[in-house]
């Protein structure tokens, strides 16, 4: 019973830190993109590629010159799926190395997304597919997949 109370207290603390710390930092990082790598005002970047704010932690890109109007998303890492994966790891009582793996997944995914965002802005808008793929699908999949792998590893590990 005390074990579940500890887990509950950790989860509540994590949610508090996430919403009042991590999410605010993500917003500041997104704001620093404006005026540095992206224009200060929302609108056209180059050759018909436009961007708008999707939320406080993501941008939406679209190209008006193409026949099919598709939106691509660039999100700052350490989002909701990071929080859900942390909660999953807390519930599983995972070893601390899995938290480092989770943070590494977020940092690597964010760095690759940022690199391809820079390539999109400087070279061609065809690269915008990569940050969209990474931030919307790959990073969340890896984050939640880590929880599943942790569970499998705990079930297969011999009990001491």
What does this structure look like?
The protein has 160 residues and is an alpha+beta fold. The protein has helices at 2-33, 80-91, 96-122, 129-156; strands spanning 43-46, 49-55, 58-63, 71-75. The mean pLDDT is 88. The chain has one domain (2-156). 62% of the residues lie in helices and 14% in strands. A four-stranded antiparallel sheet has the order 1-2-3-4.
Helix content: 55-70%
Domain module tally: 1
What is the rounded distance between the termini?
A: 22 Å
Tally the helices: what do you get?
4
Biggest sheet, in brief? Answer: 4 strands, antiparallel
Assess the beta-strand content as a share of residues.
5-15%
State the order of secondary-structure elements, H for helix, E for strand: HEEEEHHH
Please give the order of strands in the largest beta sheet: 1-2-3-4
Label the overall shape: elongated
Give the overall pLDDT as a whole number. 88
Using only CA atoms, what is the Rg?
19 Å
Number of strands: 4
Secondary-structure-derived class:
alpha+beta
Low confidence ranges? none
